[in-house]
Amino acid sequence: MMFLFSSEIALDFHLKRNANPGRYANRIFNKLAYGCISCNTFCDCQYLCGNIANFFELQVDGRSMNEDLLRMRPDAVLILNIASYAAGTNPWEGVYDNLWCAGSQTDDDRFREQSCSDGYLEIIGFKHFELARIQLGRRGHRIAQGSEIRLRFRRGVPMEIDGEPFPLGPCQMIITRKNQARMIATERSQAAQQIQSKRV
Question: Is this model's pTM higher than 0.70 or not?
Answer without folding.
Answer: yes
